[in-house]
Amino acid sequence: MSTDQAVRDATARWMRRRRRLIGYGQWKPFVDAEPVRQHVLAIRDAGMSLKNLTAVTGVSSSTLDHLVYGATGYPPAVRIRTESATALLAYWPTLDDYIDGAVIDATGTRRRLQALGATGWPATAIRQRINFVNVKTIENARHNQQVTARLARAVRDLYESACGSKAETHGVTPWLATRCRNQAARSGWLGPEVWDDDTIDDPTAAPEFTGCCGTDRGWWMHTVQKLPMCERCQTAHEGWKAERAHLDHKERWAELGHAKAAASNRGANLAADARELMRISGLDYEQAAARLGITRQHLQQELQRHPAEAA
What we know:
Helix content: 55-70%
Number of strands: 4
Low-confidence stretches: none
Mean pLDDT: 84
C-alpha cells in the first residue's frame, strides 16, 4: 500500500469515528485547558522540565508552550485537544523519570534518611554507600525541603535494601549505630515502621504508629504500648470523650476500661493469628495481612511489638 493510500485510509477512519461520536453526542475534540495547565505546572514545580514532559507523554512541545505560556501576542490556551489533555492528566512523574540534576521535593528523601538514622545509620555510613556527595550534604538532606533526583534515587535504593534491619547487620560499628539511634530519638526522627512504601513520598501522608491512628483505639494503643502520641489520635480521643460527656461517672469509666482492654489485646492477638496463618497455611506477610483485614505494614508492626516468645 502506498503512503498516500495509507493516509487516505487513516483519514477516512478518523472521519467515520468523528461522525459516529457526533451522532452519539460524545464528540468533544477540545476541553477546558485550566485543569490541565495546573496539573502541568505542578509537574514542573516538582522538578520536571516541559521538554522532558514532552518526551514521556508524547504531547508536542508547541502544545505545552501554548498551554503554559501562550503564543506570541496571545494569552495561554483556553482549550486543549482532548487527546492531549488525557495524556497529560494521566501522567505524574515517578522518581526514575527525573534527570539527575532535577531539583525535586525532598519529603520522601528526608523521611528515609531520618528512618535510616533511627535504625542506626549515621551520615558517615550512608556516605560510604552514596559516594557522590559529602557527609554534610547527607546531614542537610535530613532537614532540607528540596534535593536532586540523583540523591533521592540513591537514598531510596539504600533505604529499600537496608531499612528492614539494624545498621549493625550492614557493617556499621555497634557503638556508632547506638549513638545514631540515640540522636534520632532526641531529634524525633521516625523509624521505617511508621511509613508505608506507597505513601512515604506523599507530603500529605501522616505517620502510622499503630495501624489504627486517627481513632480512639489508636490513642489507647499509643498509651498502652508507650508509643509517641500522634496528633490524629489525640484529636480522636478528645472527640471520643466529648461524645460520652453525658454519661455518669461509673458508665464513663466502664467505657474507658473497655476501650483500653480492646487496644491492649488486639495487637498481641493479631500477631499470634498471623503467625498461625503463616505456619499452617503457608501464607506470606501480604496474604496474612489481607486475611486479617489489615495492611502489611500494620501486621509487621504488630509482629515486631509482640515477638513469638511473648505472644
